[in-house]
């Protein structure tokens, strides 16, 4: 696709979705279809627990796993889902997708990892292939920004959904440079000591995962949205105060059963590290998070314009988090 811009590719994809999507009736009051643009893993426990708690409060949530943030956004626009999970800044600005972010879940905590047999430092990746989560994802933004900061140009960027999938590919040698979350970084260090090098990354405060929906849905389903946002804040605050709560929530709601009980210690360690880093959004993000995102995604080349001139309202609807903070108090 040489010479074809990302905007053209994405716009064509969205046009295809809108043209082919079968007409869907609007979700009933109390119904919420959430498009999850990733493979749920340890890092998803907080979100999955919040969804279960929202169900307990009367919101009939259907979780749709799509493994790709682009697909999650397409599902929102095509009427196949109501709420998406991701950080769709590029889509909002460059394609004009009529969606708004309404709550931050967590900030970026990713670790670029390379096979030490082939690469030792950032400059070694000049012209080399790397694997990231998805087009427009935080993982791609981190890699692009680090390449820019180190004066190199990455080669082919392949999209491999799922941090655990990328970890396994690194172990198998099918990819030699990628980016993973904290849990899978620790797993690589434990499973193959000395084989991989974690490249340095400057401190990042931008959104990793956030909730987004159309303006119409946010207006017409405000009560359901408020419940989900409140439960996200509650779980974030509880886990940050006591990371062991993540295991309690996992066991209570039978989350990620395929991992088995042996994953509990890894979950505790992951959320302890996450809590120490302050990665979970205790107050839903809002204007402050948007400004951090503008600075990061602009530097990474995923949104255009002077970050100081970008308007929060063009990307976010903060009304739900304002109501949640008024009800729960600010942390």
Explain what you see:
It is found in: Periplasm. The protein has helices at 6-20, 45-56, 69-77, 89-95, 138-149, 163-172, 182-191, 215-220, 222-241, 245-253, 264-277, 287-299, 319-328, and strands at residues 31-36, 60-65, 83-86, 99-107, 110-115, 130-132, 157-159, 177-181, 196-198, 207-214. By secondary structure, it is of the alpha/beta class. The protein folds into two domains: 6-108 and 206-328, 3-Layer(aba) Sandwich (D-Maltodextrin-Binding Protein, domain 2), CATH 3.40.190; 110-198, Periplasmic binding protein-like II (D-Maltodextrin-Binding Protein, domain 2), CATH 3.40.190. The strands form three sheets. The protein has a five-stranded mixed sheet with strand order 2-1-3-10-4, sandwiched between helices. Helix 5 (138-149) links the parallel strand 6 (130-132) and strand 7 (157-159). Helix 2 (45-56) packs across helix 10 (245-253), helix 6 packs parallel to helix 7 and helix 9 (222-241) packs across helix 13.
Q: Please, what is the CATH homologous superfamily of the largest domain?
A: Periplasmic binding protein-like II
- Helix tally equals 13
List the strand order in the largest sheet: 2-1-3-10-4
Query: Shape from CA axes?
Result: globular
Distance between the termini: 47 Å
For the largest beta-sheet, the strand count, sense and barrel status come to:
5 strands, mixed
Q: Calculate Rg over CA atoms.
A: 19 Å
| Domain tally | 2
| Proportion of residues in β-strands | 15-25%
Q: What structural category arises from helix and sheet content?
A: alpha/beta
Oligomer classification = single chain
Kindly report the average pLDDT value.
88
CATH topology of the largest domain: D-Maltodextrin-Binding Protein, domain 2
Number of strands: 10
N-to-C SSE string, H for helix and E for strand: HEHEHEHEEEHEHEHEEHHHHHH
């Amino acid at each position: 696709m040489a010479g074809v811009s990302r905007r053209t590719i994405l716009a064509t994809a969205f046009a295809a979705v809108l043209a082919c999507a079968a007409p869907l009736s609007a979700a009933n009051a109390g119904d919420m279809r959430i498009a999850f643009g990733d493979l749920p893993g340890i890092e998803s426990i907080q979100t999955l627990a919040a969804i279960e708690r929202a169900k307990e409060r009367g919101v009939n949530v259907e979780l749709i796993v799509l493994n790709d943030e682009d697909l999650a956004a397409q599902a929102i626009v095509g009427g196949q889902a109501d709420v998406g999970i991701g950080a769709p800044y590029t889509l909002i600005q460059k394609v004009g997708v009529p969606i708004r972010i309404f709550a931050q879940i967590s900030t970026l905590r990713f670790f670029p990892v390379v096979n030490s047999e082939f690469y030792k430092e950032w400059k070694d990746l000049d012209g080399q292939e790397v694997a990231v989560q998805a087009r427009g994802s935080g993982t791609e933004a981190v890699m692009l920004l680090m390449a820019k900061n180190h004066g190199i140009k990455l080669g082919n960027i392949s999209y491999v959904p799922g941090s655990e999938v990328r970890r396994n590919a690194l172990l198998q040698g099918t990819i030699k440079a990628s980016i993973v979350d904290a849990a899978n970084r620790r797993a690589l260090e434990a499973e193959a000591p000395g084989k991989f090098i974690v490249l340095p990354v400057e401190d990042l405060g931008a959104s990793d995962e956030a909730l987004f929906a159309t303006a119409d849905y946010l207006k017409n389903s405000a009560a359901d949205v408020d419940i989900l946002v409140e439960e996200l804040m509650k779980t974030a605050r509880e886990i940050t105060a006591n990371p062991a709560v993540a295991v309690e929530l996992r066991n209570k709601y039978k989350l990620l059963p395929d991992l088995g009980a042996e994953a509990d210690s890894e979950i505790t360690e992951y959320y302890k590290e996450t809590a120490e880093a302050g990665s979970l959004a205790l107050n839903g993000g809002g204007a402050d998070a948007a400004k951090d995102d503008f600075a990061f995604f602009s530097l990474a080349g995923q949104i255009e314009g002077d970050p100081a001139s970008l308007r929060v309202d063009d990307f976010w609807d903060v009304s739900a988090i304002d109501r949640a903070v008024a009800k729960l108090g600010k942390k």
